[in-house]
Amino acid sequence: TQTVSQSDAHVTVFEGDSVELRCNYSYGGSIYLSWYIQHHGRGLQFLLKYYSGNPVVQGVNGFEAEFSKSDSSFHLRKASVHWSDSAVYFCAVSGGSALGRLHFGAGTQLIVIP
Amino acid sequence: DPKIIQKPKYLVAVTGSEKILICEQYLGHNAMYWYRQSAKKPLEFMFSYSYQKLMDNQTASSRFQPQSSKKNHLDLQITALKPDDSATYFCASSQDSGRYTLYFGAGTRLSVL
């Protein structure tokens, strides 16, 4: 069974701060990890993904994430946030033969204070 | 312009009725999906289609029936609606049913009274 845990339901920072959104997963086989962003009232938009290779992956708008097999984690980071980064961020995992079936975490709402 | 169109954006239905949620994608993708997001559960996978064929079904109830009349269409028919069906239903697509990025529509928000 695949599970995704996003431990922080809400994170509040000031504009210009750095931020890390945490994601831990549970899955026994090879996996595919990704992050999506959802602005209020809109669909999810892809940020970045990891399957293999360099554990640090770069995404859009200055986001990056680091895969750690030992910690079963795929945390999302940004060095300097902008107020427009305020949104809900979802971590997702898929694996095995059902790679199109993403299991999402509960999401972390990021609030950036201008 | 949105490349994945979902209609309607909002839908109100009475218990026991039937509704069809429309999804069309203009990305040239071969795989399409339905996901559901409710207040009680995280975003959850429902169905996946590849080349108009059902690949994966995680919906226990037969009240939910996807319909694919064309490669770029994947509608969702819901019968005998219940208040617990109230949720936002997202259609998504990807180039193929592998390790590809999913692109999501804006969703249809369904409220069952």
Could you characterize the architecture of this molecule?
- Helix content of chain A is 0%, strand content 53%.
- Chain A is built from no helices and 12 strands.
- Chain A is globular, with a radius of gyration of 13 Å.
- The model of chain B has no long low-confidence stretch (mean pLDDT 92).
- Chain B is mainly β.
- Chain B has strands spanning 4-7, 10-13, 19-25, 31-37, 44-50, 53-57, 64-67, 75-78, 87-94, 103-104, 108-112.
- Chain A binds chain B through residues 4, 32, 34, 36, 41-46, 49, 51, 90, 94, 98-107, and chain B through 4, 31, 33, 35, 42-45, 48, 50, 55-56, 58, 90, 92, 94, 97-107.
Instruction: Give the overall silhouette of chain B.
Output: globular
Q: What proportion of the residues of chain B is helical, as a percent range?
A: under 10%
Structural class of chain B: mainly beta
The oligomeric state is heterodimer
Using the CA coordinates, give the radius of gyration of chain B.
Answer: 13 Å
- Percent of residues of chain A in beta strands? over 45%
- The CA-CA distance between the termini of chain A, in Å, is 40 Å
Fraction of helical residues of chain A: under 10%
> Whole-number average pLDDT of chain A?
92
Briefly note the structural class of the backbone of chain A: mainly beta
Estimate the strand proportion of chain B. Answer: over 45%
Main sheet specs of chain A = 6 strands, mixed
